[in-house]
Amino acid sequence: MKGRDSFDGQAVYHIYQRTKDGFLLFYRGKDYIIFYTMVAVAARRYGIKVLGFCQMVDHTHLLVKATSLDSIRRFVQHYNKSYTVYFHQQYGTNGELFDGPFGIAKKVGAKAIRTAIAYLYNNPVEKKLCRQAEAYHWNYLAYADNPYPFSERRNLAQSSNAFRRAVREVNDFSSRNRPLNGVMLSQIEDSLDPEEIKRLVDRIVGIYKLIDYPLTLSFYGDYETMLLAFHSNTGSEYDIDEEFSPESDTIYYRIAKAAVNLFGKDCFNGILSATEAQREKWAARLANYTRASRRQLFKFLHLPRPVPVRAEAPSSSRVPAPPYPRSPR
């Protein structure tokens, strides 16, 4: 891995991790937020300072400062192992989830670090998930300026009993340096309405405090200046061998929405653990609703190869856009 040969305590390190065979990594909102808390717990344990974090559908980016390369290695191994266990339990899969070894590149000097920061936060812009970096939920950029960018702020005393219990439970997990888990979040989701769930996600981001926003902003001066730089320049990355496709990742949200419409809201609990033959049948039906390519369906369904999907007559049914926050309030 680039950057492994010599360690520089003043440098920032760009960590890039993708899934084995390019499969999807996140299917639901709770997947993103659970992974976020796992990374936060690992960062505390190994003394890692995080300047940037971006979760894409099939890979992740981190910008960190650390005390040694060994601490970075242990940090990555910790959250990878935790999320792999969660993913297999949640979706009934097995085997390696992440491709290895992870990519790492050393960034020395303010200019190189600013370029890496812009590149990380603009990843969703490059994949056409949003027009501006701060509109994407899972790079957590909007939280640098507003603790409730995707929900309506409300005093805790004015919230429902269920919401207050949820916040207490999240605080308890965080205080004991434990990540959230799927069973806990599922129980919480069942007790809250959609707006409360959005507000709880915003709370979780603030409670776990993964990203050191003052450190990140120190390379720009303030939030508005940083955004202006992001809007003017997407940044670049030449030191990591990252696979990049110019296609929009919005197709995977369309596939997910179509899967729920076709197979029910609980379909993700068994869709990846089904037989290969069954998943190939589902791919054919999903292709009809989404017009996704064979490669995209193979990624979504964790099939070992692109499946030969036979074209069917277009359906008159329109699949609505995914319930995805496009811009902070």
Q: Which properties best describe this structure?
A:
single chain; alpha+beta; Alpha-Beta Plaits; 4-stranded antiparallel sheet; globular
Structural class: alpha+beta
The share of residues in extended strands comes to 5-15%
What's the N-to-C terminus distance?
40 Å
Shape descriptor reads globular
Number of strands: 4
CATH topology of the domain at 12-152 and 208-232: Alpha-Beta Plaits
Which range best describes the helical content: under 10%, 10-25%, 25-40%, 40-55%, 55-70% or over 70%?
40-55%
- Element pattern in H and E: EHEEHEHHHHHHHHHH
List low-pLDDT spans. Answer: 311-329
- CATH architectural label of the domain at 12-152 and 208-232: 2-Layer Sandwich
What's the average pLDDT?
Answer: 90
Describe this structure in words.
- The structure is a single chain.
- The protein has 329 residues and is α+β, with helices and mostly antiparallel strands.
- Among the domains are: 12-152 and 208-232, Transposase IS200-like (Alpha-Beta Plaits, 2-Layer Sandwich), CATH 3.30.70; 250-301, no CATH class.
- Helix content is 45%, strand content 8%.
- It is built from twelve helices and four strands.
- The protein has helices at 29-46, 69-91, 110-121, 123-126, 161-175, 182-191, 194-208, 213-217, 223-232, 250-263, 276-290, 294-301; strands spanning 12-18, 49-55, 59-65, 103-107.
- It has a four-stranded antiparallel beta sheet, sandwiched between helices.
- A hairpin with a 3-residue loop joins strand 2 and strand 3.
- The N and C termini lie far apart (40 Å).
- Mean pLDDT is 90; it is low at 311-329.
